[in-house]
């Protein structure tokens, strides 16, 4: 069966989606701050797209060459009150970027992408509110299919 990654148009479309999302985050007064640190990764867009690709049935480039799920969760952990407020806004930045990024106008695809990002932002990415020290070292990369989480 076609994966969500393939239906979306592969890595090119996910990179455009990550870039458009990033620009929206920078333009948002609440989300701007964490994305504006001087030591942020210059290739953030590429890394975010690779992570999404792997979760959505694409190649395992993120986990083989860039980082692990534990690394990603540690980056986002320990920000309880902030993440409560910021998570729904991050999801909105992704969804509002669909047209600009050229995500196919297929309701089933857009619904699956929206559900994946919502699930991640409201669940795993808020699971360690107190400290990055609480994040286990061996978290599996999440996988998302047409009917929801695969692992
Ligand atoms: C409130 C919501 C979120 C905020 C404020 C946030 C913030 C950030 C920040 C500041 C970075 C570091 C950027 C850099 O180094 O340039 C980052 C990296 C990243 N974020 Fe988020 N994020 C949020 C939600 C999410 C969600 C929902 C996902 C996945 C579905 C995600 C996936 C990633 C990935 C894969 C990276 C790159 C990790 C790496 O450098 O290897 N983030 N995020």
UniProtKB/TrEMBL annotation:
UniProt GO MF annotations: heme binding; metal ion binding; oxygen binding
Q: Which InterPro entries match?
A: Globin-like_sf, Globin/Proto, Hemoglobin_trunc
The alphabetical list of record keywords is: Heme, Iron, Metal-binding, Transport
UniProt cross-references to Gene3D superfamilies, sorted A to Z? Globins (1.10.490.10)
**Which SUPFAM superfamilies does this one have?**
Globin-like
- In the UniProt record, does the keyword Repeat occur? no
User: Which residues does the annotation say bind heme?
Assistant: 71
Q: Which residues form the signal peptide?
A: none
Q: Tell me yes or no: is Iron among this UniProt entry's keywords.
A: yes
Protein name, per record: Oxidoreductase
